[in-house]
Amino acid sequence: MSAALQYFLAGLGIGGIYALVAIGFHIMWSSAKAVNFAHGDTLMLGAVLTIVFLDHGIAMPVAILLSIGVAIVFGVVLERVAIRPFADQAASIGWMLTTIAIGIMLESYATIEFGAFARPLPSPGVDKPIIIFGAGVFIQELLIPFVAVLIVVLLGVFQRRTQLGRAMRAVAFNRVAAGIVGINVLHVAMFSFALASALGGLAGILVAPVIQASATMGLLLGIKGFAVAIIGGITSAPGVVIAGLLYGIIEKFVDGYISTAAREAVGFSLVIVVLMLFPQGLFGRRELVKV
Amino acid sequence: MSRLARHFNPAFVVAAAILILALPHIAANEYELRLITLLLIYAIIALGLNVLVGLTGLVSLGQAGLYAIGAYTAAILATRLGVGLVPGLILGMALAGAFGVLLAYPTVRVRGVYLAVVTIAFGIIVENVAIEWDSLTGSWVGISNVPAPTLLGLPLDTNAYFVVVGASALIAFLVNLNLMNSRFGRAMRATAQSEIAARSLGINVVMIRTLAFVVSAMAAGAAGVFYVYLNKYISPDIFSFTDSIRFLLMVILGGSGTALGPVVGASIMTYLPEYLQAFGPWQAFAYGLLLAAVMFFLPRGIVGSIEFFLSGRMAEARPDTAPAERPRLADIIAVEQTDGSACLDARGVSVAFGGLVAVDKVDETVDSGKIHALIGPNGAGKSTFLNAISGVYRADSGSITFLGRDTTQLNSYRLARLGLARTFQNTELFSNMTVLENVLVAFHKEYRSDIFSTICRLPSFGRDERHFRQAAMDLLSYVGLSAYAHEKAENLAFGHQRQLEIARALALSPRLLLLDEPAAGLTHTEIEQLIEVVRDLAANGITILIVEHHVELIMEISDHVTVLDYGELIASGTAEEVQTDPKVIEAYFGSQSFGEGLASETAGPETADGEA
Amino acid sequence: MAVLLEVKNLSVTYGHVEAVRDVSLLVEEGEYVSIIGNNGAGKSSTLKAIAGVVKPAGGEIVLDGKPIAGMASYDVVRRGLSMVPEGRLIFADQTVEDNLYLGAYARRGGARSKDVSEDLERMFALFPILKDRRQQLAGSLSGGEQQMLALSRGLLSRPRLLMIDEMSLGLAPRVLETLFPVIEMLNREGLAILLVEQLATVALRYAHRSYVMEDSRILLSGASAKLASDERVIEAYLGRRKAG
Fold this sequence. Notes:
The structure holds 3 protein chains of 3 kinds. By secondary structure, chain A is mainly alpha-helical.
């Protein structure tokens, strides 16, 4: 019983990260109908830079803000150079490979600068586990899913209450229509990538105390976050958060009851099965082909 | 190159074969020969992937998984059972092919980034199974001590092995080339460009995608087998996500959809690491930079860019003029004389989207050999009804009988094979294919030569190809487009595009032809031509169901008119009966107060027509 | 009256297809102008080029003496030129109210300003049904209601010239009966209108002046009343060839 609860709580923690990454994919998809395969590296950027800034004696809050700031700049630049030039092409292969290329470059550069080893990010959230019904869990692990849910709620409010938020939804719905009411689609795309990258950087900082920061931490987190966004339904923000949390929990159970190596095989098999049953994802919007 | 590539060229094959035989003697040392062998192995995987990416338009980010399946199969068979190269190759390809079928299955329902996720997931699953299944795969340690390859019991030395791999690569090249320039390649390209149109022409797109996946999977499997015997050692880290990307980059860099591109891409990607070593720790960075540079500066790839440049120059030469005489339709396609029975019978057909009922219990009988029209204000559900009877949408209730057969549940490609052809409101041409190829796609199901005789270029393939090329040219003459046969469809004027859609539909030898707003966007002269063609089709025994806004056109050619309004059938009868029906006038011109002005003016032509 | 919009030798191409060839037209301040012609004649493409939705291949577009050809749609709107697009293109997944707020996107001061809420009330006065449905998703509206919303959304940018593309498309005449008088009223209040309409009879009845397009060119132009009795118009667009 306490083992199951342990897996559940730990799963919520890692699932919260997938959820945060997946929200980023959702935001970027909505504005640009593109997938940023380097998004995982935004997490790496947030986590690794915070450690580097701390090394330089910068205070934690400032280090966090600076790292997120760099992540935002990275997202904005990436949108400009890797996504926008390919926006008009029907095939997705353009931005798919350019974003992968940028991911490779960033990861390689980080490896050179930061080293090939992993380092923990200190956090008061991992000082001492708290015990809930016999299951030990770090505050940090509970904080992550809380932040994920909070962000999706705030995002919803933002998209309903502000002009910029409405404009984001308008661009997602129809770019031509958005343009004729005066929305600069390019500005919205830029803002969306900034927002997604800020969330990515934040996710990296939140998860680094739990899983340690390294130059290569981004790849798998990014792929999983993307998979989660797709099975949740990339058009639905709440959908991807629910899918993220569920995926994290399932992973921890497989981890605990079968084996660590089986985790990815089972998890990704599940991704395929879900997509077969729900081609638009669990909570996605189905688009009708009109002729 | 495209000219050279279009046909099976024996001289090229002989030259390539001589080169392969000579290379072991030319190569400076064993290392260099090994590198060329590796190049050829990559060429095999890239050529296979080209069928998937370049022709069928499906992106796989999990090709390393299939490569791994081939490699592990051969390695396990060789180390545990002492099995030789050929059985290993057969089993490795078979197993990879089987996984190809498995991977193709999701494309029934998912496309684009969704499919990308499926392929990524597949690659990661294979990699992790290789790690996890310790007893079989040796986990991280992998499988080493792979014996030297044997061919029919004879051991192969490095040079002989090179020749075997070289011959296999040449075969892979020819398979890719012959597939490209065949009905299968056309069906793949058609499916990539407009799935809905491909279906409407009788193409089973699920089969075509499965074929593409199987071909690419078997190529990857074969490459995996060859790699095992070259390297003598495999481990899971050779088959990662990064490797899948590398294989994709080979195709894109060389030029996806071209014959030589994958080989060029594989060559560059084989030698690249040699040069990147100079960058030391910046090796991965330089690789990323190169990938980005290719996407920015050479999105068509090397061979693709050259072909594009050449084709742009060739297009300047104007094609010859059209023959004056229009051929007889009966000489080109099989048209059956009709007996006047019901060709299509729809009973109580309803289609709803969400809560909105677009078509509500519509009855419609189309008599054989007649021109039947479906009219109604915009949004009345005409196109939806057309889509329901042609199998694009499934009717929510009601039954549809076509040529006496219940077709309510049939897909559009099955309906097309039964003789139900259609055109599209916004034209759904295969815009990157030539005008002639567009028509040839529709002959796909008529070919007798199977995939084997196509790839091997057996005489039956040549017979079929010549026969249907002629038939397609004749159909183009019939609609007056023969002068444009080798133009890309997207370069046609709009009126010509509409004519091409009709020619394409006729290639199905249809019993019933559905025309969805064929006059929209046409000039008056073109509409006159359209009327002429439609009448000739009907005279040849082809039943016509036409959806149209141009009331005048409808009144002029239709034997029977059905009127829909807000999804419901409100009138049915001859043109004269319908245009005097008060319900129809109400639907088109509104109630009295505002309508009067409009009705008296807009209704004018119809009344005038009726009286004329 | 002063010239508000002047289009000179405009051409638009899609790939190799020439959709608009050498089109010139004028709209004066407060004028009601229509472009009529058959489906595919190039009317909508002309409008889209003016609104910045497609880039013209050649020619000049001058609004208020300033060139706007090639300018992006979101900048064109800021200069007082608003478009109600063909097919309405309302934001179906947002509420009626949010659609209206988005209509005011190009205005300074944001959606919260008093001006905007006053304009919203004005739209609700024009089309009371929108007020009843203000919290509903726009996609749940009927076709006619969606057109009212699209029109209101176009007005919320406070344009000086409103361009309306194929308003009658897919709408029952009953709905048009309420829409056309509203446009006429807006015009009488000083708003210039450029209407693209396939239903030539309706357009010629309301517009002061009209242009007739055929095969991507302007065939005729002049006072609507005069065009309505021009044999060539009747022949080409009202389909009276047979009767005549």
